[in-house]
Amino acid sequence: MKKFRLILLVFILITGVIHAQTANNALAKNRAFTGAKATLKSYHAIYQLDNNDPKIIEKTIRNINNALTDPRLAGKVKIELVAFGGGTDAYLNGGKYGDELKALAEKGVIVAQCNNTLKERKISRDQLYDFIAVVPSGNGELIIRQAEGWSVIKP
Fold first, then answer.
1. Same domain membership, residue 80 and residue 48
2. What are φ and ψ of residue 34, in 5° steps?
């Protein structure tokens, strides 16, 4: 019985040492990880903006700028921002996001608005910033883009 206990204790100690070494190796590998490699020729992402909460709008704009400045994606990424529902408020003339949205458009981001929302909310095209594109439906845009292989992002 004493011999069995001694063997069991040795086994437990060896297992613990092996586990600790494995965990340390995993932590070292994790620390060394620098992110996924952008090996494709191009990447496409469509951001969905359907909320008028300023925190969500600002996060969406920040996320898009982060993608545009990611060195792995430099010259390889095409982005669209489509608004519908409450997100339409960000596109209304005179709002606080005009300069930031225009800057995105100047960087090549497609800034698009759902026409269904315009009809439902009785908003005319001239109430939007003049650089905003209009698509038939926001949901349709998301469906088509996703089928084309675009990543759909909802901040």
1. yes
2. -115, 10
Q: Which residues pair with 10 in a beta bridge?
A: none
pTM of the model: 0.82
Residue 9 structural domain = 1-33
**Total structural domains in the chain?**
2
Residue 50, domain member (yes or no):
yes
Per the structure block, which two tokens stand in for 79? 């982005």
Q: What is the pLDDT of residues 10-67, one digit of tens each?
A: 666 666 555 656 656 668 778 888 899 999 999 999 999 999 999 999 999 999 999 9
Q: Are residues 49 and 93 in the same domain?
A: yes
* Cα–Cα–Cα angle for 48, 138, 153, rounded to 5 degrees: 20
Record the tokens describing residue 87, joined without a space.
Answer: 């997100």
C-alpha–C-alpha distance, residues 116 and 125, integer Å: 12
CATH number at residue 149: 3.40.1260.10
Phi, psi of 105 (to 5 degrees): -60, -40
The string of pLDDT tens digits covering residues 101-138 is 999 999 999 999 999 999 999 999 999 999 999 999 99
